[in-house]
Description:
The structure is a single chain. By secondary structure, the protein is mainly alpha-helical. It contains seven helices and two strands, in the order αααααββαα. Strands 1-2 form a two-stranded antiparallel sheet. α1 (2-10) runs antiparallel to α4 (64-80). The model is unreliable at 150-170 (pLDDT under 50).
Amino acid sequence: MEEIxxxxxxxxxxxxxxDLLLAWFCLEALAPERAAKEVxxxxxxxxxxxxxxxxxxxxRGIRSDVLLIxxxxxxxxxxxxxxxxxxxxxxxxxxxxxxxxxxxxxxxYHVEEEEMLLWSFLSEDHALNYLAEVxxxxxxxxxxxxxxxxxxxxxxxxxCACGGKHHASE
Length: 170
């Protein structure tokens, strides 16, 4: 999937990258020989719902590389889904659980880049407490290391998934 994501980045357009990811998904997850008809239908409906969710993020002005990472990871999970419960869990937003002084993923389908985005949305209207701020920065730094290093989509160190628009008051 990482290769497909990098190709989608090169298109430098969320709609084109989204279409590339969806083409991969159709080939990987929806071929009739891959699963029973009911499972293929669940995957297809899940992908449609996930695209709508990420399109909503796009309307909020989120960077296309972040959108493509989230969509790519969610589609990869959906490609392996075999039950309605799995599809439902994959489609849930990646909100962490808080336990014993730290934030942890709630499920095996957690996408850190989506969690990072959700922290950004929350911080638009509410000041984050210290632990939430630490978690948000930890995710952002991991995102920078994974996806913007090595000359790929080099973003400034202070560039945020939201393009900085949510942090104008800082």
